[in-house]
Amino acid sequence: MATQGHYLVTRTVDDVGAALAQLQVAQTTITRIIQRMAALGLPALVGYEWPAGYTQADFIALYTALSALPGSVVADDVRDALFKLASSVQ
């Protein structure tokens, strides 16, 4: 019979694995956004009609925020802790 500790650790490891996979998907998506903007740049926005309540400045601010994210969506120490747990408990 499994103990509560076993349940807690193994379920957390399962969830950490899922979180790492989701972080990888998010990083790939963010990279794609940044690469698209780098390839097309501001000239692509000339003449674009922004929807009411959203401006080119809002769009640029979003791009700027995304491009300023670290290599991982989470801080290095958090990422390292996730990998340590996932790789230590099998």
Overall shape: it is elongated
The total beta strand count reads 0
> Percent of residues in beta strands?
under 5%
Note the run of SSEs as H and E: HHH
- Number of helical segments with 4 or more residues: 3
Q: Indicate the percent of residues in helices.
A: 55-70%
**How many distinct folded domains?**
1
Give an overview of the whole structure:
By secondary structure, this protein is mainly α. It has helices spanning 4-40, 56-67, 76-88. The chain has one domain (4-88).
Nutshell version of this structure?
By secondary structure, this protein is mostly helical. The chain contains 3 helices and no strands.
Topology record:
Elements: H1 4-40, H2 56-67, H3 76-88
Helix pairs in contact: 1-3
Task: Name the features.
90 residues, mainly alpha, 3 helices
